[in-house]
Amino acid sequence: MIFILLSSILMISVLAGWGRIMEKISGYKLFPGISGKALLGILGIGILWTSISFFTPINIVLEIPTVTLGLIYFFKDKLYEDFYRFSKKEYYLGAVLLMAILLLGSFHPFILDHFGYYVPTIEWIKEYGLIKGISNLDLTLGQMSIWHIFQAGFSNFSDPFLRMNAVLLIIYSFYSIEKKSWIHLCFLPILLLFSQSPSPDLPVIIFSLIILDEILTGNRNTLFLFAYSTFVLAIKPTMIWLPILVFLNSIVAFKPSFKKLLFGIGILCLFFLKNIWTFGYPIFPVAIGDLGVLWKPNPEVLKISSQFAVQKTYDMQYSYQEIQQFSTGDYIKKWFTLEGIKSKINSIFILSLLAFIVFTCFKRKKIITLICISIVIKSVLILFFSAQYRFFIDVFFVIFLVSFHEYFTKRKSIIVFSLFSMLIISVLSFPGLIQKYIPSFRLGNFMTGFKKEQLYKPSIYEYHKFNSFEVGNLKFNVSKDYPYNFDTPLPAISESYISDDIQAGIFPQLIDKNDIRKGFIWKRMTSDEKKEAEKAIYNIKNTDK
After folding, report:
1. 410-429 and 184-191 helices cross at what angle (nearest 10)?
2. What is the 3-state secondary structure (H, E, C) of 422-479?
3. Which H or E run includes 510?
4. pLDDT (tens digit per residue) in 156-171
5. Phi-psi map region of 256: left, alpha, beta (phi>0 left; psi -120 to 50 alpha)
6. FRET pair for 441, CA 20 to 30 Å: which of 158, 298, 323, 530?
7. Helix or strand or coil: residue 286?
């Protein structure tokens, strides 16, 4: 907790300083206050480092000047004076929020993507930057989220425990207090569950709620609102509803000039370029917009991934072959009747969406209608491609914010925050409760409870067990007795992707055997290489046994 506090003080100062730089360059403010500057700083650094990551690792060489420059502007322009504007009661409230965030942020990570996707991605960016065709090595790495590029740059000395999400929650708390928009306190308890990992889900939810709040309260800064909405899309493409909303609102309400949309369009182009560089197609993981680049993934591997996504829609409770036999009615019925908690989430999602459509018709307000259109477009796309609850969880927050924006006063919001925060703290401190009463919530099995060491530093896992293999010109490492490579030396491949490659008859190879930064392609295996690959997978599975 103490370390997260010190890291937060440093990081918020740096981000606010960079936000001030962005304001001077553009001549615009996102909105007044320390939270507005910090959020602009995240946007500026995220875009800058993403652009640089094509050419160099995002490591301490960049972190030192970035931190230094941010601190210079923070103190030179006296940005700390923004904190003096809080009242005494707001200081007390802020202290309570801060303690909850520091405590929840100090627990062990329990989201599985932390080990198989988030940390490996950050390690690649720190050591090499964006790698051309890295999806050929491990398809998951082809995502290379801008949030992880941002996190990688601060993971050397500013945030080595990867608790940037906790820092972001503190900034979000500042926003709620500064704007007197108390309904955001109701969201904090749920969002605290994302504070232990560098999950991109947290920033996109927070950024979208803030942008939505600004639109509802009449913010006319189209330049930054549209730019930030495309930045959110670049972090997680399932947030497509947000730039659609901002664009529609700007056209209907403000009729902006095309010039004010250029910054956002530039971010969108950077997003497409990043995906083409790492994945081979403009939008991960969809093989649409084939430019014929040599490093695009093997079609058979993409097919296997697509089939897996279909199975994930049904919580892996049916095989792909079984799902293919479903009638239209079966597709719908079985999605609503999955075993466990996910069927209930699916039902609540559809009911909430229908209720919001009725609410929109009843209200007959232009902005609410645009919001409804935007999330319906997003929901239809998600239901069509892969209807997993993690892809539409943000819709719940949006519907709640719009429906109750004027209902939750400061007192009501603090009560909701207090009650649900105590519940979340109890669940994480005593995970046996959720394991007993909600056994279908699998993440509960990875919660470990409170450790006294959390009082001074966040809890992390260390493993450092791996085996090394070689197929063709690629020497690689695979975690031993564990499916994920969160601390396996690079280059590392997950066992599941090795199996997929062997099934497809291909294997990743270095474009230049002497330089990993030149990237990866896939090649058909020779008979000798196939023997090497099969021997590797045999040894891995034999070891696992």
Report:
1. 10
2. HHHHHHHHCCHHHHHHCCCCHHHHHCCCCCHHHHCCCCCCCCCCEEEEEECCEEEEEE
3. strand 506-510
4. 999 999 999 999 999 9
5. beta
6. 323
7. strand
